[in-house]
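Translate structure to sequence.
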């Protein structure tokens, strides 16, 4: 019986390592959510198009854009701006200055809970680089997806 040579053993080790890397990089999901530690981590534009864990169903998409110590919000009716920072995984935002269009139902309700959520110091968690979850109040959660990067104006890179 022949003994394997160092070259054969080395090749086997390299092949096994490559297999582990490939399998690890193709696993489904974005990984376990991690708390956001700075506003820079979420700089860019995020959109929520549906929610099952919010005070009311989304009637239209909600957009949040984070940049340079502030947040811009599109509630579905009015738009607004407020100061923003992250402290211990929590979004500290407001007060908000908003436009004053009269909102018809259900947009009026959506605007009220979106602004209240932002001012309630919601917990912020990232899953990967393109999913942001805000949780607050009575177990409410809103999932947002990155739609544009503030630096490049581009959406997230396609998964490969």
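Result:
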């Amino acid at each position: 019986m022949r003994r394997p040579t160092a070259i054969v053993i080395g090749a086997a080790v390299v092949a096994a390592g490559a297999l582990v890397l490939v399998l690890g990089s193709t696993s489904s999901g974005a990984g376990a959510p991690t708390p956001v530690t700075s506003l820079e981590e979420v700089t860019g534009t995020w959109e929520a198009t549906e929610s099952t864990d919010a005070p009311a169903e989304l009637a239209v998409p909600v957009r949040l854009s984070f940049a340079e110590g502030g947040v811009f919000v599109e509630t579905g009716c009015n738009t607004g701006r407020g100061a923003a920072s992250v402290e211990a995984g929590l979004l500290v935002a407001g007060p908000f200055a908003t436009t004053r269009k009269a909102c018809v139902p259900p947009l009026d309700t959506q605007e009220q809970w979106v602004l209240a959520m932002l001012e309630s110091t919601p917990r912020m968690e990232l899953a990967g680089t393109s999913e942001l979850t805000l949780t607050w109040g009575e177990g409410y959660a809103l999932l947002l997806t990155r739609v544009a990067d503030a630096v490049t104006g581009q959406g997230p890179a396609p998964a490969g």
